[in-house]
Amino acid sequence: MPESKETTPKLLDDTSSVPVRVPPAPVPILTYQLPRTPCIFSGDDNQQDANNWLRDFQRIATYNHWDDQMCLSNVIFYLASTARQWFDNNEDTFTNFTTFKNSLSNAFCRTEDFRRQAERLLLTRTQQIGETAESYIQDVLSLCRKANPSMSEDEKVAHLMKGKAEDIYQTLLVQDFRRVDEFVKRCREIESLRRRRITRTRFQRLPNVSAVSAETDVGDIRSLIREIVREELGRLLPEKQYYTNDEPESPPDIASMVREEVMETLAPLAAPRQRNSIPRRNTTSRSSVSVRSPPRREARNSAVPMRKTDLWRTDSNVPLCYHCGRPGHVLRYCRERRQIFADSRAARTFNPRRDADNESTQS
Predict the structure, then answer these.
(1) By CB atoms within 10 Å of each CB, which of 67, 122, 156, 211 scores lowest?
(2) Where would I find the H helices in 90-152?
(3) What b/e readout covers 211-238, taking b as 16+ CB neighbours within 10 angstroms?
(4) What is residue 285's predicted lDDT score, i.e. its pLDDT?
């Protein structure tokens, strides 16, 4: 008997009868990328570094998808003045862009000059009033990289510490920083805390002077007075100036008051004031007769300098003798001076004719 095969009914898949919708392919969006333009390199400015310009040019060339041949073809459009003449004179030797970069570095690169300049700036770089900690840190790190690319972390931290403001310096001094990132992290924390304070405008400090405080809301009157005193001393000491009462009055502010005090204090150093000056005669002009006065001529050395009586008196206002310098009497009644004249009269030789003439004159 043939074996009966059991057949199981096949279940139809419900999804087989439903047509599957294929999503449409995305339409590509074409975007136009604007090309970037490098800056112009002239080679005349001492502050323009050839290596920095080449680095910026390569970045822009990468953005614009320029290969070496395109870079060599377009570089002439970004050269001017001396650099353009140099390119015209040596254009035949530029076989590729690498040769051009090496030749440009040899011709216009002043690595040693920039290194010395960075070292000088690094010695005097300080954080100024209103300057953020991030700006100061990045500038100092840039100078460190130019001065010595292989500078250690300890030296960088030392350069960063020595120019910080006084209040932040005292805060950072108690901590030991071995790495630059630790120093930067701590400075950012202090900077974020200081931004929460209310600030106000402040006067301008002298350049290359380390600030007493990094905050801009503290009025440092002492620094203002120091600045005014330096200005007045610079005006007084190089040359003598005579101050009169005919000077226009300045507005009543702190600067004018300090200037007046400095002028009164340093007046004996510049020139003594004439105390007993001769009063000017008031002349009245006649209305009937118009008289033309002759031009005035300035009299030179006409005023006799007054004696410095304050130097010839003691603290208790006792006069000092101009001859012997002892207190209690003046030159007229000085005993030593009288003794000199008496000795001179006693030591003179005898002349009978002269004595007879004197006696006849007296009689």
Answers:
(1) 67
(2) 97-108, 111-124, 133-147
(3) beebbeeeeeeebbbebbeeebeeebee
(4) 44
221-253 pLDDT per residue, tens: 777 788 888 888 877 775 544 444 444 454 456
DSSP label at 319?
B
Which residue type occupies 102? N
Q: What is the DSSP letter of 47?
A: T
In this structure, what token pair is assigned to residue 298?
């300035």
Tell me how far apart the alpha carbons of residues 353 and 34 are, in angstroms, rounded to a whole number: 123
**DSSP class of 137:** H
- Would you report the helix, strand and coil content of the chain in percent, each value rounded to 5? 50, 0, 50
- Per-domain boundaries in the chain: 50-109, 113-202, 319-348
Residue type at 99 in one-letter notation: T
Q: At 286, which amino acid appears?
A: R
Q: Are 192 and 184 in contact (CB under 8 A)?
A: no
pLDDT reported for residue 235: 78
Angle in degrees, 0-180, between the axes of helices 221-236 and 254-265, rounded to the nearest 10: 40
Whether this model's pTM surpasses 0.85: no
